Amino acid sequence: MRGGRRWQRARATTGLVIASLATASVTPTGAQPRPGAPVRSGGSTAAASGTARLDVARIDAIRCPMREAAPAPQPALRWRGSIVRWAEWPVRLGTEGVRNRIIVAVVDPARVTLTLEIARQGNALGPWTIEEAPPDAVLAFNAGQFTDAGPWGWVRHRGRDRAAPGAGALAGAFAVDTAGRPAILPAHTLPAATLDARWDEAVQSYPQLLVNGRPVPALCAGTDLDRAHRDTRLVIGLRRDGMLLVLLSRYADTGSGLTRAVERLPIGPTTPEMAEIAWRLGAIDALMLDGGLSAQLRIGRGTEAFRWPGLRAVPLAIVARPR
User: Fold this and answer.
1) Of 208, 203, 188, 318, which Cα lies nearest the Cα of 271?
2) What is the domain partition of the chain in residue ranges?
């Protein structure tokens, strides 16, 4: 569902970008930030966030089917932030032990207003990156999938439908009602949801990972989903206590001594591994947003913001402002 030539006009081609990252200069180990030093650019080094001494979790594909939706044991993380609490979780993925770092952001929807941001250039759709996020936003990240023509699937903004739903057994939607309460809507509920005026904001994406604490059945079998492909992942989820989760993966082969730019290489969890990560972090419902080169996240405001940029602009984003 990704295309987006329009959103890449000002950027180098994907091949050139990845090639430049792969040949990035080597940073000596001693040049890493000292423990506790903030990395305002969004570089997610373990030393910067204090996660260097955390145990590295081993992540495999989520069990299919899961017999019961029992709460997962929560990893011990070192949290920072106020309105948006966030931490970094070092993981090793699959039998290969691929090193990744999961940026975990948690926010109480009662403390923020969640809205879509549709990038505009005059009357036309335009490119969006976290640098275009509103200055008062405490959380901002790309949303949904897109094609050359614009956002893919159902988009509703300020109560008005901007695009019709797309088809797909795993193509759910993130929605916010008129009272500001978020929900993740399974694909089979979307025909009714699009007729429901209580949903003020909505964006469809793919694939849905969890429903009611269990993996979506179509995630386990019966679809043409690639279960082995590794990529950068961005996921939105809801916990049982109503808290909103945003999860971003970053490549973390720190043993190579490469610069932080290399963490943007699209090497991350498989889809079943990302479902396991979301479940372990307490999500009962979870939906994958556009990952790969599009995945980007900003937490905080102004000089206090932490940024994890992507390598591709997008037409659509989700932002949270304090109430």
Assistant:
1) 208
2) 6-24+36-62+77-322
